[in-house]
Design a protein that fits this description.
440 residues; three-stranded parallel sheet; 16 helices; globular
Length: 440
Amino acid sequence: MQILNFIVYQILSNETIFLGLVALIGLLLQKKKFPQVVDGTVKTIIGLTVLTSGAGILISSMSPVVNKLNSTLHVKGVLPTNDAVFGVVVRFNTIAKDTVITFLLAFMLHLVLVRISRNKDFKNAYLTAHLALYHAAFMNVTLPTVLHTNDFWTVVIATVLNAVYYTYSPAIPRRIARAWMHDVSTLGFMDQVGSLLATWIGKVFGSQDPNQDADQMKLPKWAAMFRDNTIMLFVLMPLIFIGIGLAVGKTGIQSLIGNSADATNWILWLILQGFAFTAGIVILLQGVRMFIGSIVPAFKGISDKFLPGAIPALDAPTIFPYSPMGGMFGFLGSTVGCILVTFLTIIFHSPVIVFPSPIIMYFDGNVMGIFGNKAGGWRGAIAAGFITGMISSAAVILFYPLTGAVYGSGLTWSNIDYALVWMPLMYLLKGLRLLVLSFI
């Protein structure tokens, strides 16, 4: 088990190492020359490292301010964030062991399903390994609560459900985005079903006029500079940080900075956090370009040999370049939706107070905004981000009590597909169990 834990937690769950190995194997299978193998492998690893470094800057700049907002509200609640809740799960030895087994078995079954699928749209290799591991943990805490299964049946059921999801859900964004992603890759981020909802929202609330596309909008000459995502974020993010900072108050923000004589002014500190967030985006997108430019050609070696016709299903940031401004509008809409849910759960004395999640607001918001923009322009992007942000946050009220061992930790899973797929499924399974018991 120690060897298995090392392989999973140190290698397979480390996205940089895992995808570096995928690139290496893919290039070797194509019998590329040694310099080409080194070039493709190194650029995949460094590209992903740059990408994750940029994502880390985003979280480190936003999380302290959002967490301080949460504590300022003086209520106990739950924060949806996958990485943190996974850290809680691994403290339980048996659940952690079952999570490892589920992750490995589900991934192997997924590859078998991809191999035998005849439909082109189902030939997608789900390579977002860390999210697959987080989801295996989710299944191993919810299924025993919902179905009262023992360890064996929990692993069996979780393996099948996860493998089916990894195999077939990426077909949704693949079909929706074929016109603009061109089957180069697809989405594998626990947002696949959400992309369908975002597209529908974009069509309902947006416009089919090409001039309404967030990335093609006709702007006055003085505003044309805002087509540049970096400039737009440079102006916008400090304003968002100041807005959250004013809600927290000077004392709360000052506690994050410190009270030494040379401490930065609290308003200036918020502005600098906005600049840091913008820098994180620039770094992330640079990493995306390097990573995609290397992993897609390298993956061809694996798909040609073992998974003919398959394309990789990848992390959310890999689709950001397809609509930078659409993602921006989605992020803004999602931020408003998540914060609104927080205040509504407080006002109406919800049994679960849901705090704004940086993961939902930024990463989900961007993805939903991109699909909303492609379907209905900038209005569709804002609406998609806003509505899915509210749904993702509000669904926590229902599925948090089902999370067994981690219930009460103040942490739970994020992403829209937990709200659209896994929360309804868990209640369906719970209902079926109660129905069966009523006949016994």
